[in-house]
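Run log // design_07
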């Protein structure tokens, strides 16, 4: 379930609206799913909708455009927790309470690392010197220093290699282009 908190520029107070699981149309007209009755908002301004477990916003040819955070959108745009959608003077803060988003927040506390077939067991590779460090008995999110080069490291959550490749794994890989190489480095204990 997702909702938006509606504020208007220069006004106090706010209003919370649940988003329908289908498509909500937002605009100045009172016929809309979510009316935004203010000058500067087009009669039919934008749509927020759920598709394949993801939320999106789409501008519907509004005069002043729709922004997500500070960027004017030119195409259907995926929404993240706490994104701010701007329609003229309206500021809509997006909130979603889905399992997927909770997982995302958890990932921010510590990185995840998918174990490769040739990795030493319960070890991570220093992202500075590429040496291998044993992380047995350490918890994800713990900090330690590389015994070899003294770089500060955050212990990642190790994801077993045999986990089936999922969309989440693909996302992670694109978010971490600097993922260290997994070959031929000595094990540092
Ligand atoms: Zn190191």
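design_07 sequence
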């Amino acid at each position: 379930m997702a909702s938006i908190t509606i504020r208007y520029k220069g006004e106090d107070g706010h209003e919370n609206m649940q988003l329908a699981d289908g498509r909500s149309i937002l605009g100045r007209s009172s016929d809309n799913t979510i009316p935004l009755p203010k000058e500067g908002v087009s009669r039919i301004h934008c749509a927020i909708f759920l598709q394949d477990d993801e939320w999106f916003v789409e501008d519907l040819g509004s005069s002043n455009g729709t922004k997500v955070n500070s960027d004017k959108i030119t195409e259907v745009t995926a929404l993240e927790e706490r994104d701010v959608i701007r329609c003229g003077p309206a500021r809509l803060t997006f909130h979603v309470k889905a399992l997927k988003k909770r997982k995302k927040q958890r990932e921010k506390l510590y990185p995840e690392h998918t174990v490769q077939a040739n990795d030493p067991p319960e070890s991570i590779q220093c992202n500075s010197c590429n040496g291998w460090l044993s992380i047995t008995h350490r918890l994800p999110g713990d900090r330690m220093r590389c015994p070899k080069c003294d770089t500060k490291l955050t212990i990642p959550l190790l994801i077993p290699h045999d986990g089936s490749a999922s969309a989440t794994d693909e996302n992670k890989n694109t978010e971490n282009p600097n993922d260290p190489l997994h070959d031929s480095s000595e094990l540092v204990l």
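Residues 126, 128-129, 131, 146, 148-149, 151 surround zinc ion (CB under 6 Å).
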